[in-house]
Amino acid sequence: MIWGRRALQHVKRFKRLPFQPEGLHRCMSAATQNLVVEMDGKSGVAVVKLNKPPVNSFNLEFLTEINILMEKLENDKSCRGLILTSNNNKIFSGGLDIMEMYNPQPDRLAEFWRTLQGMWLSLYGSRLATIAAINGHSPAGGCLTALSCDYRIMAPGFTIGLNETQLGIIPPFWFVESMINVTGQRQAEVCCQKGLMMTTEQAHSIGLVDDVVPGEAILERAHNEMKNWLKVPDFARQLTKRQIRKPTMDRLIAKRDEDIQNFVQFITKDSVQKAMGVYIDQLKNKAKK
Ligand SMILES: CCCCC/C=C/CCCC/C=C/C(=O)SCCNC(=O)CCNC(=O)[C@H](O)C(C)(C)COP(=O)(O)OP(=O)(O)OC[C@H]1O[C@@H](n2cnc3c(N)ncnc32)[C@H](O)[C@@H]1OP(=O)(O)O
Questions:
Q1: How distant is the alpha carbon of residue 29 from its chain centre?
Q2: How many CA within 13 A on the CB side of residue 255?
Q3: Longest dimension (CA), the chain
Q4: Domain range holding 229?
Q5: Does residue 25 have a pLDDT over 60?
Q6: Strands 27-31 and 35-40, how do they pair?
C-alpha cells in the first residue's frame, strides 16, 4: 500500500491507540476514533461498525483509519471474517465527504483519492470473507463500500446506489466495474447511467443486495451467513476470490496515478465546483428544515 505524507502522520497517531486485534481471543471490543470493532476470537469474525457522525461520510482521516484497521485484520491470522455495518441505524454511509471535494487543496485532494483507492483495493481484495450488513442509506461511496464485500444484507426502508450522475459527476471505472461484477452488465448500465438510488427491494431484485432482513435482525443474519462462508477452506475461498477479482483490481493498480489525475482535474473545474457548492447548500438547507 502506498501512503501519502499526511496519511503517514495519521498512521503514527493511530498506532498509539489501544486497538490491537492480533492474538485476541474470545470476544473483545475496541474503538478507534470513528470505528467500533468487536472481535470474536473463537469464530475469528470481526464486526466493524462505522461510527462517524452524522452520516459516516468518508474523509481522508476516516479512510486512513479504515485502511489501518484493514491492514491489522489482514495480518491477524486468527481473523477469518469481517462484518461491516454502521453504528447509526439509519445511515450505513453517506458516501464520500463532499467537503473534501469542495474548494480543495490539490495535494490533499490527490491524497484523499489515493486513500480511497487504497480502501477499495484492500476491501475488494481482502483475504477475509466480508459481509456488508447495510442497516441504513448507502449512496455513492457507501454503495461502493458495500459492493466491495462478498455478500450484502440490507434492511428495508432505505436506499442504495451509485448516484454520481445525478450529481453531475462521473463514477470512475472501478466503481462501475464493481457494480457490473455484482449485478451484471445490463443492470449496471441502467442504474449507473441513471444514477439510480434504489429501495432495498429494488436493489434486491437486481441482485445488488443478496438478502433483505429487518434492521434488528441484520447482525444475527450476517453471523449466520458468515458461518456458511467460513465452512469453505480459507485457502480455496481466498484464491478463488482473487482469481475472480484480480482483473478488475489490476486495471486500477495499472492506472492508479492516471485515475488520481483525472479525479483532481475533474473536481477542480470551475463548473464542477459551482455545482458542488449548489449541492452542499441544498444538503445544508434540507438539514435545517
Ligand atoms: C473520466 C473522468 C472521471 C473523473 C472522475 C471524477 C469523478 C468523481 C467521482 C466522485 C465519486 C463520488 C462519490 C461520492 O460518494 S459523492 C457523495 C455522495 N453522497 C451523497 O450525495 C449523500 C448526500 N447525503 C444524503 O443523501 C443524506 O444526507 C443522507 C446520507 C441520506 C442522510 O440523510 P439525513 O439523515 O436526512 O441527514 P441530512 O441530510 O440532514 O445530513 C446530516 C448532515 O450531514 C451532512 N452530509 C450528508 N451527506 C454528506 C456527505 N456525503 N458529505 C459531507 N456531509 C454530508 C449534511 O450536510 C448535514 O450536515 P449539517 O448538519 O452540518 O447541515
A1: 21
A2: 13
A3: 54
A4: 5-288
A5: no
A6: antiparallel
| pLDDT at residue 262 greater than cutoff 50 | yes
Lowest-confidence segment of 11-25, 30-44, 67-81, 270-284 by average pLDDT: 11-25
Q: How many CA atoms lie within 13 A of 27 on its CB side?
A: 2
pLDDT-based confidence at 193, cuts 50/70/90?
very high
d(CA 20, CA 37): 10
Quickly count: other Cβ atoms within 10 Å of residue 143's Cβ: 32
> Which amino acid is located at 24 in the chain?
L
| CATH number for the domain that contains residue 88 | 3.90.226.10
ipTM: 0.96
Task: Please give all residues whose beta carbon lies within 6 A of any atom in ligand 1, as ranges.
Answer: 54-55, 57, 90-91, 94-99, 137, 139-141, 164, 167, 169-170, 172, 262-263, 266, 283-284, 286-287
Q: Point out the catalytic residue in the list 164, 195, 196, 252.
A: 164
pLDDT of residue 27: 60
163 in active site: yes
Protein residue with least CA distance to atom 59, ligand 1: 284
Number of domains in the chain: 1
Query: In the sheet that 138-139 helps form, which strands lie side by side, from edge to edge?
Result: 138-139, 159-161, 198-199
Atom of ligand 1 nearest to the CA of 97: 52
Whole-angstrom distance, CA of residue 222 vs CA of residue 224: 5
